Amino acid sequence: MIFILLSSILMIPVLAGWGKLMDLISGELIQGISGKILSGILGISLVWTVISFFTPLTIYIEIPTLLLGLFSFFKNKLHQEFYRFSKKNYYLGGFASFIIVLGGSYYPYILDHFGYYIPTIKWITEYGLIKGISNLDLTLGQMSVWHIFQAGFSNFSDPFLRMNTILLIIYSIYSIEKKNWIHFCFLPVLLLFSQSPSPDLPVMIFSLIILNEIITGNKNILLLFAFSVFVFTIKPTMIWLPILVFLCSLFIFKSNFKKLLLGAGILLLFFIKNMWTFGYPIFPVAIGDWGLSWKPNPEVLKISSQYAILKTYDMQYSYEEIQQFSVYEYIKNWFFLEGIKSVINILFILSLIVFSVFACIKKRKLITLICISLLIKSVLILFFSAQYRFFIDVFFVIFFVMCYEYFNKRKSIIVFSVFSVFIISIISFPNLIQKYIPSFRPGNFMVGFEKEQLYQPSTYEYHQFDNYKVGNLKFNVSKDYPYSFDTPLPSISPSYINDDNKAGIFPQLIDKKDIRKGFIWKRMNSDEKKEAEKVINNIENTDK
Predict the structure, then answer these.
(1) What is the SS3 assignment for 195?
(2) What is the CA radius of gyration of the chain?
(3) Burial class of residue 308 (count of CB atoms within 10 Å of its CB; 0-12, 13-18, 19+)
(4) 76: DSSP letter
(5) What are phi and psi of 56, to 5 degrees?
(6) Does residue 442 contact residue 111 with C-beta atoms inside 8 Å?
(7) Number of neighbouring beta carbons within 10 Å of residue 318
(8) Would you say residue 543 has pLDDT above 80?
C-alpha cells in the first residue's frame, strides 16, 4: 500500500504536467486538475505508441517523460488546483484513496493478467512493437494502447503494474472536483480490476467521464471525439462511445467534420499499430487484408474464432454441438448456461429492453442517441462473441444515465462505503465467493489478505521454464503452467504451440539474428515437425 501511495504521489503530478502541455497544443478537454491528468494520459499514450515502433520503452524513455511532466507541473503551478478542494472533500478524497490503495494491493487473479497483460508489457519494455508478434502468440497481436502506456512506467514509477489503482484515485478526484457524486457508486465494483493492468478498467472509467461531460454540456467535440477514439483503441468493444460522440456532433452540436480529424488521426495510428503487430486493422478480426507477409495463418485464426464461440457458451458445449444448434437453441442455450453467466446474460438483455423503453418515455435526443449507440455495440458483440466481459460496460452506462439525477453526495458515499466493505471482504476472504458462487471462476484464484501488502502490492513469481528450438526460433515455455507471465522472452504459451502444430506451421524469425525484425509463420518441413513434436511431448510429460 505504501508503495502504491508513493507511486501515485509521483504519477499524478507527472500526468497533470503532460496534460498542461497537451492543453497548449490542442486545447482543454476538461477543466480542472483531473482534466489535465486525462489529457496527460492521452498525450503520453500516443507519443509512446509512436516511439514503440522504433525502440522499446525502457527507463531511458521513462525518466525524460517523468522529468518533463514534473517540470511542467511546477512551472505552471498546477499544485494550486488542489487548493480548490474544501476540507471535507480532502477527507473524502483521503478516505476513498485509502480504500482504493488497499483494494489494489491484493494479488492479481484475472487469468488474462498472466497470459496476456504481463507478456504484452514485457515485450513492449524489452523490444517495443514487434512486426507479426501474433505469429508467436496470437493474443499478443492486440498490444493494447493501455499496455503501451503501462509499459512505459513499469521500469521505475510503477514496477508492480498498479496503474489501474492510480487511475481509480484520479477517477475519485474527478468526481469530487466536478461534484458528480454518482461516480462513487462505481468505485467498489471497479476495485475488482485494480490489481491487474486490465484495459477493462480504464475504458469503463473514461467512457463514464466522457458520458458525464456530454450530459453536463461539454461541447468540445474535437477533443471529446479524439478521447472517445482513444478509448476505442484501448478496447475495440467500446465502439459505442465514438459512435455516440459522432452522433452527438451530427444531431445535437451540428459540428463540422473538421472537428473529427484528430480522432480520425488517432484511429489511423490504431490501424497501423494493429497491422504491424497482427496483420489486420482490428484484432482479432481478419477483415481488411492488405496482403502483409506477417499476417497470421488462416487456420490459426479459424481455431481462434472457434474458441471465441466456445467462450460465448462458457465452454459448456463442444464446437460441433454449437454448429448444430438451431436459431432457437442458439438463443435458449446462451440464456440458460449453468452458473452465474446465465444470470448476467439475462440481465444484459433485460437491461437493454428497460433502457430502450426508458429512452422512448424520456424522448430526449441525447438519451435516444446513447440507446442507439449501445444497441449497435450490443448487436456487434452478440454477432461476434457474446461473452459477458465484452458487454459489462453496458450495465454501467445504463445505471449511470437512469440514476444520474437520483444519487446525491450523501447517497453516493453510503453506497461507496457499504459496497467497498463488501468487495474488500470478498477479496480478503475468497472462500466465501468460492463456496457460494463456484461458477465465478476468477474467484478461485483469489488469495486473500497478507500483511506484506501493507507496504508493497502482492505479486506472483514462478521462474520455471524450458528452452526449445524449432527451425530458426529459440524460445521458452513455462514448465507445468499454461501461461508465460514471467518466462524470459521470446516465450510461447503451450496452447499456441498445439494450435500451430495442428495447422502444420510454426513461427519463425524474419531475421534469425534480430528479434526486432519480427515474426512470420512457416510450414514445417519433416525435421521441424519432429522438433515440434518433441516440444509437445515434453510439455505433456512435464504436465503429468
Answers:
(1) coil
(2) 23
(3) middle
(4) T
(5) -70, 155
(6) yes
(7) 11
(8) no
Q: 542 and 479 in contact (C-beta within 8 Å)?
A: yes
Cell triple for 199: 484495459
The CA-based angle 79-83-88, given to 5 degrees, is 135
Contact status, residue 283 vs residue 274, Cβ threshold 8 Å: yes
Residue type, 375: L
Alpha carbon distance, N-terminus to C-terminus of the chain = 39
Distance CA 283, CA 385 (A): 13
| pLDDT single digits (tens) 147-204 | 999 999 999 999 999 999 999 999 999 999 999 999 999 999 999 999 999 999 999 9
* Average pLDDT in the chain: 90
Q: How confident is the model at residue 450 (pLDDT cuts 50, 70, 90)?
A: confident
**Weakest-pLDDT range from 78-82, 125-129, 432-436, 515-519:** 432-436
Biggest CA pair distance of the chain: 73
Give the amino acid at 243.
Answer: I
H helices within 235-387, ranges in order?
240-251, 261-277, 298-312, 319-323, 327-335, 340-362, 365-384
Sign of CA dihedral 173, 179, 180, 185: positive
Distance CA 409, CA 181 (A): 5
Dist. CA 354–CA 452, nearest whole Å: 46
Burial class (CB in 10 A: 0-12, 13-18, 19+), 253: middle
Q: Please tell me the distance from the alpha carbon of residue 278 to that of residue 284, in angstroms, as a whole number.
A: 8
- Cell match 484520479: residue? 170
Q: In angstroms, rounded to a whole number, what is the distance separating the alpha carbons of residues 374 and 379? A: 9
Is residue 294 helix, strand or coil? Answer: coil
Q: Do residues 327 and 319 make contact, with C-beta atoms less than 8 angstroms apart?
A: no
d(CA 207, CA 228): 7
**Position 190, amino acid:** L
The single-letter code of the amino acid at 36 is K
Q: Is beta strand 473-478 parallel, antiparallel or unpaired with respect to 465-470? A: antiparallel
Query: What's the CA gap between 189 and 322, in Å, rounded?
Result: 33
Q: What angle do CA 41, 241, 309 make, to 5 degrees?
A: 105
Residue 522 has φ and ψ, to the nearest 5°, of -140, 140
